[in-house]
Amino acid sequence: MFQIDRSSTVAPYEQLRSQIIEAIAAGSLAVDTRLPTVRALADELGTAAGTVARTYRELEEAGVVTTRGRQGTFVSAHGDATEQAVQHAAAAFVAVARSLHVSDEVAIDLVTRALKSSAPPAR
Fold first, then answer.
1. Domain count, the chain
2. Any signal peptide, and if so, which residues (predicted)?
């Protein structure tokens, strides 16, 4: 999901921080999504655990993620109240789809059909 460009002049922790923020903004990391452990992500990226720990610490200070002790690090609620409500609904939908062993493709198709069958929101 994330990758470090070793040839970049941008520090690895900053690359990772930016990628996590972009993933949240794009909706690929929803509210309450559990992030990989520091050690697991460091191993996956081939980087030092301290790099990932620094990234998580800075994201937590910014309110982007929250650490829940031994449970792990999770994406925090962010944005305005409307966005937060939709993110919570999306997270709940994903939890139900996962519990029913629905594939990602089918889940996305269901959401797409639901969006197409309802009237567009008034702005």
1. 2
2. none
**Is residue 109 included in any domain, yes or no?**
yes
Question: Phi, psi (5° rounding) for residue 44?
Answer: -65, -40
Four-residue CA torsion sign, 56, 66, 84, 89:
positive
| 48 shares its domain with 86 | no
Statement to judge: residues 62 and 16 lie in one domain:
yes
Check if the beta carbon of residue 32 is closer than 8 Å to that of residue 24. Answer: no
pLDDT per position as a tens digit, 85-100: 677 788 888 888 989 9
β partners of residue 65: 75
Partnered with residue 66 across adjacent β-strands are 74
The answer to pTM > 0.70 is: no
Q: Which helix (H) or strand (E) holds 44?
A: helix 38-45
Specify whether the CB–CB gap between 27 and 83 falls below 8 A: no
